[in-house]
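To whoever is on call:

I kicked off a structure prediction for a single chain this morning and the downstream step that reads the tokens threw a length-mismatch warning. I double-checked the sequence; it's 421 residues and nothing unusual in it as far as I can see. Pasting both halves so you can look.
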Amino acid sequence: MRLQKIVNRLQKLHPKEIDLSLGRIKTLCKKLGTPQDKVKAINFVGTNGKNSTIQACYSILKDAKIKCNVYTSPHIQKINERFIFNNEQLKDEELASLFEEVEKINKNEPITFFEILTACFFYKAAQYPNNINLIEAGLFHRFDATNILKNNLASVVCSISKDHLDWLPEDQRTIEKIVFEKTSSLLSSNIIISKQNSKKTTECIKKTICNNSSNKIIFNEDFSYSIGENKFFYYEDKYGGLKLPSTNVIGQFQIENISTAIAVLRHLNIDISDHNIKSGVTKIENIGRLQEIKSGKIKDLIKNNQLLLDGSHNEDGARVLNEYLQTLDCNKHFIIGMMSNKDHKKYISYFKDISSLTTVDIPNQPNAISGKKLKEKFQDVFNVKYEKNIEKAIKSLSLKKNDMLIITGSLYLAGEILNLN
């Protein structure tokens, strides 16, 4: 209760939820003693795959007994997920005390919720100067609150595609503009570029950072992977090749993210062994991203049918989710809820062979599109219907043996499912 009261106060410090600027957070961090200058950071930018790549890095580093601080967003179930220090998530009372201390130093000055959360992270992270900080950028990067570091170990450019277009002028809603916003202000250290969804995007990134003096490590030029038999995959870079076991996460796009994570850690000469990598990739925790739900209240509603939960919410996320689903020989039933600022028709267009589609409302999210309006946008899709909530949506399905249920469209919806489950 104490933590939630403080969160409610922090959310009211600025009239806008998002107000892209670096001025407010720089002012607050100066009052906090410029903690961002005292951390060793690896920054992760992009549209998709940031969290998955972070979790792969984190799992390998933990296996090597290397202490980490981790800052990600948004959270899926609890805000505590965003604040990991010394490989441990902060408990409610610890997080409440951190928020109160920074709140007091801020002295009620206007600052967005994400900005003050970022300041809180840096403030706490500075207490662990030897830890490696894995930091996920928020919206774009150029004016994102995480972009106030003077130095870092590396910047990781994950898959970039069109998303959050409502934050750009109508005549600038292009991949070139998005790449510019995400990569033009990267620090000069090491830049690792993951596999992109097109050669055009990769070339656009390379062009945007061509004057950046960083050491550049690029997928298919400096590192690569291939998938072998018996679920093994093979990673290769200038340091040699690694035959890696089947991971505990599903989907080829996860192999892409894991390969990027390995490239990051090997090129930084961090003290990890091949054994740490082989062991780490089998212990990745990545909730809400192509996650199979094997037990719980929601799973009980469909009994022996398989349940997949995925927070994908933009066209590239839909593309890679569909690529995985196309490898499965079963009927696929979808339940989808989305935020209002997404390209809903573009998103749904990527999915093939839908047996049934049900739209739902996302509770507790004022910026979500209603399930009824989403149904209207999906009218061209066969057999679309609307149900008010998840339980009703699941009970309305006629699932046969071996049918699969996929719940997707939003990380916020994924959080609701996990909480209900």
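Update from on-call: the warning came from a stale cache, not from the record. Cleared it. Sanity check on the structure: The chain has two domains: 2-280, 291-420.
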